[in-house]
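Posted in: Protein Modeling Q&A

I'm a second-year student putting together a small comparison for a lab meeting, and my supervisor asked me to include a predicted structure for Alpha/beta hydrolase. I've never done this before, so apologies if this is the wrong subforum. The sequence is pasted below exactly as I got it from our records. If anyone can share the structure token output, I'd also love a short note on what stands out.
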Amino acid sequence: MAEEKRFSAEVYHKKDSVDWIVFIHGFGGSARTWKNQTEFFSKHYNLLVLEMHKEKVNDDLDIDKVCQLINNTLDFHDIEKAHFLGFSFSSLICLRFAILYPEKVYSLIMGGGIVKFNMRTKFLLFLAINFKRWINYMILYRFFAYIILPRKNHRRSRSIFVNEAKKLGYSEFCKWVDLIPQTKNSLIWLDELNEDIKILFVSGNEDHLFLKDTLRYTRKISNSRVEIIDNCGHVCSIEQYDKFNDIVFGYLKSVFV
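Accepted answer (user: helix_wrangler)
Welcome! Here is the predicted structure, written out as tokens:
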């Protein structure tokens, strides 16, 4: 029988007796964007760090297929259950995964978490979908990076994601852009979420596009919590990684003893 398709992944195996954390990078990102987290959390947990753009998926993507590929990757590495750490758009992938495979999820941890796309972000998505065939995708990506991360203290995280996105290529960029509208039912997913799954959102207080909706809609989620980092933008896992790591580590220790 042919081997099931899966994502590439970096594995940090500490010992069998500790939990797994599965890292799911944001749109255009890579395992490298989790560098500050893997260095810290590999001392305490087993880690599976996905590379969703490394091996190009030849056919079209849909949100459930992405979740299936993630599940296949867990099965390949004999991971029965894990904590999932997502960032930005991958928050919605994590949320959908928890709906489809609740038995695989201890908790969801969302850095720069997104619960839904509001009118402003839907307009940006409209531009990306309609201009992707006319404008170089890196021009679009840089434009969106500046919109999402406009301040001086956001410069380093903005630069890291732009550099990683250069490795995407045009066709891969299009596939993942076309995936985003499939998350339009994300608020319905909140109602379907298993109440035993705990969720932590970690956001910067300068996350001007997504924080307001995160605070608003997490009230619908039982077992959820929001932590906000001051003087920090959307990419809090890079911009203030020490605080981000401390919040996540403290949460895991306090909730899952």
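A couple of things worth pointing out for your meeting: DSSP finds eleven helices and seven strands in the chain. Residues 241-255 form the longest helix (15 residues).
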